[in-house]
Design goal:
Number of domains: 1
Radius of gyration: 19 Å
Strand content: 5-15%
Order of helices and strands: EEEHEHEEEHEHEHEHEHHHHHH
CATH architecture: Alpha-Beta Barrel
Largest sheet: 7 strands, parallel
Distance between the termini: 42 Å
Helix content: 25-40%
Shape: globular
CATH superfamily: NADP-dependent oxidoreductase domain
Bound molecules: NADP nicotinamide-adenine-dinucleotide phosphate
Number of helices: 12
CATH class: Alpha Beta
Amino acid sequence: MTDSRIPTVRLGEDGPEVGVQGLGCMGMSFAYGPTDTEASRATLERALELGVTLYDTADAYGAGENERFLSPFFRAHRDEVVIATKFALSIPPDEPTKRIIRNDAPYIRQAVEASLERLGVDVIDLYYMHRRDVNVPIEETVGTMAELVREGKVKHLGLSEVTADELRTAQAVHPIAAVQSEWSLFSRDIEARVVPAAHELGVALVPYSPLGRGFLTGSFVQAEKDLTDDDFRRTMPRFQGENATANATLLEPIRAVAKAHDASLAQIALAWVQQRAAVHGLPIVPIPGTRKPSRVEENLAATRIVLTEDELALLEPIAGQVAGTRYPDMSFASAGRE
Ligand SMILES: NC(=O)c1ccc[n+]([C@@H]2O[C@H](COP(=O)([O-])OP(=O)(O)OC[C@H]3O[C@@H](n4cnc5c(N)ncnc54)[C@H](OP(=O)(O)O)[C@@H]3O)[C@@H](O)[C@H]2O)c1
C-alpha cells in the first residue's frame, strides 16, 4: 500500500474489509443526466489506484445497464474490488417515475441470476435488499438472501433504507454486514433510530448520497432550471422552486468551513459524515458518486480533513432547516415507516 491510498475498515463483524470511502457508480449510467463513458471508466481506474475497493451499483440503475457497464472493470480487477449490487426495485422504462418493489423469494432468485450474468462474475460480494416490500415478512426475504450465501452466489448481505426494527429482525436471521441509507448534512433522519440500532448490532453504515445528490457541492440550485429534463433530481421536493432557493442559503456555513480548510464544499460534506459517524461509534463507508477522476481525488482527500468542534457546531442546525423531503413519497425511505 502506498502513502496516497486510503485506510480500510471492516463492514460488519464478518464482512469485507474495504477502503474507508467507496464509489457510487449509479450516475455513470442513470439518473443524473448525460454521461461520458470514457471519463467514467477513467474514474473507476483512478479510484482503484487510490485505494477505493467498494463499488456500488444496483440492478435498477438503468435496468441493468449500470451492472453491464461495470462488468469489464470488475472482471479486470476481480480480486481487488468488492462488488455491491442490489435487488428489489424496478423502474418501468415507459414510466420513469414509477417504482415496483419486490422482496419475495422467486423474484430474488431470478434477480440474483440476472445480476451475476450482467456483472459477468461468479459471486456478488455484498448483496443488498434495495427497498422494503412490506407485504413480505423481512424474515422471509433475509432467509432467501441467506440461502444465496449458502449456495455461494453471494458473500455478504446488506439492507437499504430499513427501519431499526427491520434491521433487528433481519440480523436475527443472518448477519448483516451493512445498512445503506441516505446520510448527509441535509439528510439525518436515520440518526434517530437506525444508526443506534446499527451500532448496537455491529452493522456498518454505507451512507449514500453523502453530497446531497450534488446539491451540497453548490453545483446546482433549482433542478427544473439547472438540470436536464431526464435528471431524476427534478422529482425531488427539496430541489424544486422555493425549497431549492431556501436550501441554497443553507450552504453558507459549509462555505465558511470550506474556506477555513482551503477545501471544497464536497470535501466538507464528506468530512462531516465521517466525523458524525465517529460520534455514534459506527464504522462507515460513504459512497459519493462521481464520473470524473479529478473529483475522486478531491473526494478521497476529504478523508484527511478534521473538523473542529466549533465547525461541527456551525454545521449542526443545517439538516433541521432543509425545506422539502428527500423523496416525493417518504414511504420509499425508512423514515416513512419508523
Ligand atoms: N440505496 C439507495 O437507495 C441509493 C439511492 C441513491 C444513490 N445510491 C448510491 O449512492 C451513490 C452516491 O449517491 P448519489 O450519486 O445519489 O449522490 P452524491 O454522491 O451525494 O452526489 C453525486 C453528485 O455529486 C456530484 N459530485 C461528486 N463529487 C463532486 C465534487 N467533488 N464536486 C462537485 N460535484 C461532485 C456528481 O456529479 P459527477 O458525477 O458529474 O461528478 C453527482 O451529480 C450512488 O452512485 C448509488 O450507487 C443508493
